[in-house]
Specification:
Blueprint: H1 2-7, H2 9-15, H3 47-54, H4 58-64, H5 74-89, H6 97-101, H7 104-116, H8 122-135, H9 142-153, H10 160-169, H11 177-197, H12 203-215, H13 220-231, H14 239-249, H15 259-274, H16 281-297, H17 308-320, H18 324-336, H19 343-355, H20 358-361, H21 365-378, H22 382-394, H23 396-399, H24 408-417, H25 423-429, H26 432-439, H27 443-460, H28 471-480, H29 490-498, E1 506-510, E2 516-520, E3 522-524, E4 550-552
Antiparallel strand pairs: 1-2, 3-4
Helix pairs in contact: 3-5, 5-7, 5-8, 8-9, 10-11, 10-12, 12-13, 12-14, 13-15, 14-15, 16-18, 17-18, 18-19, 18-21, 21-24, 24-27, 27-28
Length: 553
């Protein structure tokens, strides 16, 4: 199979040049471990090598090899490139990438690399490609194309470590047919090599392979080979490894769902809880966000991604390390998506607000909204809310923010649930500009949330909402309500059996406030007996139900 792939590369390149580039990796190339096994070159250190190593900056290095760049050996060329790479990573010893790429000495160095590259091992070619890419050499340049062609010609010798590196670097290059063809070949190569070249002991490489499998189309069997290899290590995972596994398993594109995947998820969860004090809080927020996103994608199927113990552990970490209002509300923002409240962390946030009111008064809108939403879920006693309410009302977010892009219709409803009235914001919500903007984004969601606010204002306040809301909006809501007369729930059957049958029960009744009542029964006032329905019993308006001497129940 390996030979066949090598022989048939050209048709693959020609046939797939126009294929869409695969999804780019979200991980930084600078943070990954790209140190592949060193070359077998074992010559004694030359005078040129000594000169290269003595240079302390990129400028000194280029000046030092100015006269010898055309005549460097393969070993010295790689040494010079590696030294240049190290200097460029250090701000105090680097120069601009533009200055390097346009430098005549660097141009000579590239010519030396092209001349020596056919004699280099694949590992050295890939390292040279990494360095040139970091420096900023264009992927359509002669030297880059030359190195990419060398990799193409040795594709069967690409190791899994090479594959991981190339999968991260190729998306960063300019889009060319050769780059695209290499990207298409990598998943095929993984599926061929996974059974024979996988290193069961290298956990970091296994987690990288799992991430690669999530981002590319590979067979379920290939994925399970990686999953089963990771399961062998149980919970013996570092915080970085457990994080990588959780991110991969919670990726939307991860399709496999079986007992082994759940076992790996549990192992990674336990390892994360055990090592959570070593985790960066920003990375932790991202992990929580991914788990919750996966859970919400299909709660019945992805129930294992909802781990209350992990969520509580994350909350405790914030409190015990006194990470402050902003970090706490950022984590709470993720919890709000599922209505999760850790009262220990919420009390910590409230105490922070009491001590430093300006955190809320001058705070960023994201943090303020997250705090307000958490209060609506917590259902705190009114005494606990009084001081908080006074601070919220002073916040710049409510007094000075006039942005139409914010979801004021949702925020207003949450504030009302806390007993906070903001007529200025209500005026914004029912303004034509606000309506027009949000109706274009997600009409159904916006209309339903706005009518929810309308219902609350009508019942709980003296605000003249009837003069503000559009009749067309209310009409749209009535159309959106699930009023299918053929839809029968177990409750319908029970109600009908209890009160005399179908002819005694109105179904899907709507009110002036756009509520939908599943069942309505009319009783005689004197006998308290249900009254049979004359006429249509489906999809009627509450105020249109004939009463006579009866009373609606």
């Amino acid at each position: 199979m390996l030979l066949r792939i090598g022989c048939r590369w050209s048709p693959i390149v020609n046939g797939l040049r126009k294929s869409q580039i695969l999804q780019q990796s979200a991980r930084s190339m600078l943070c990954m471990d790209t140190r592949i096994a060193p070359s077998n070159i074992t010559k004694d250190e030359s005078d040129v090598t000594t000169i290269i190593k003595s240079a302390s900056t990129s400028s000194e290095l280029l000046q030092a090899i100015k006269n010898d760049a055309n005549r460097l050996s393969a070993e010295d060329t790689l040494t010079a490139l590696t030294a240049l790479f190290e200097h460029q990573k250090n701000a105090s010893t680097s120069i601009s990438r533009e200055n390097i790429v346009s430098d005549r000495t660097f141009e000579k160095l590239c010519r030396s690399l092209k001349r020596n590259s056919p004699k280099m091992e694949l590992n050295d070619v890939i390292n040279a490609l990494k360095i040139l890419s970091y420096i900023g050499t264009g992927s359509k340049s002669e030297i880059m194309l030359s190195l990419l062609h060398l990799i193409k010609n040795q594709i069967n010798d690409v190791s899994l470590a090479h594959l991981i590196f190339l999968s991260k670097m190729l998306p960063r290059l300019d889009r060319t047919p050769l780059v695209e063809a290499l990207q298409i070949a990598l998943p095929l190569l993984l599926q061929i090599q996974i059974g024979t070249k996988i290193d069961y002991e290298n956990v970091s490489e296994l987690t990288e392979l799992l991430h690669f499998a999530c981002e590319h189309r590979v067979s379920d069997q290939c994925v399970m080979n990686i999953v089963n290899s990771l399961i062998l290590h149980g919970e013996d995972l570092s915080v970085e490894q457990s994080r990588s596994i959780l991110w991969s398993l919670s990726d939307r594109s991860f399709r496999v769902n079986n007992a082994n995947c759940e076992k790996l998820l549990e192992n990674a969860m336990r390892a994360m809880k055990r090592n959570i004090n070593r985790e960066d809080h920003k990375e932790l927020n991202t992990t929580v966000d991914r788990l919750i996103f996966k859970y919400l994608d299909d709660p019945s199927k992805n129930v294992k991604f909802y781990d209350e113990f992990l969520f509580n552990t994350c909350s405790d970490l914030v409190v015990e390390n006194d990470l402050g209002f902003e970090n706490a509300t950022c984590l709470q923002k993720e919890f709000n998506k599922i209505g999760f409240i850790n009262f220990k962390m919420l009390n910590y946030i409230i105490k922070e607000v009491y001590k430093y009111p300006d955190l809320l008064i001058e705070g960023h809108q994201t943090n303020v909204i997250a705090f307000i939403t958490s209060l609506t879920y917590a259902n705190l006693k009114s005494d606990d809310l009084q001081k908080i309410k006074s601070i919220i009302l002073k916040s710049n977010f409510l007094t000075k923010n006039h942005s139409l892009k914010l979801q004021w219709h949702r925020i207003s409803t949450e504030l009302l649930s806390l007993g906070i009235e903001c007529p200025r914001i209500w005026d914004i919500v029912f303004s034509s500009h606000f309506m027009k903007l949000h109706l274009q984004k997600n009409k159904q969601k916006f209309v339903l949330r706005t009518v929810q606010l309308y219902q609350a204002l009508k019942v709980l306040t003296d605000y003249n909402v009837d003069d503000k809301i559009s009749e067309n909006l209310l009409a749209d809501v009535l159309k959106m309500l699930p009023t299918d007369s053929k839809s029968i729930t177990p409750l319908h059957k029970c109600v009908e059996a209890a009160f005399g049958g179908e002819s005694f029960v109105y179904r899907n009744v709507t009110t002036e406030l756009c509520h939908l009542l599943d069942n309505v029964i009319v009783f005689d006032k004197s006998t308290l007996e249900p009254i049979p329905i004359e006429g249509d019993r489906f999809n009627v308006r509450y105020n249109d139900i004939p009463l006579g001497s009866a009373t609606k129940q």
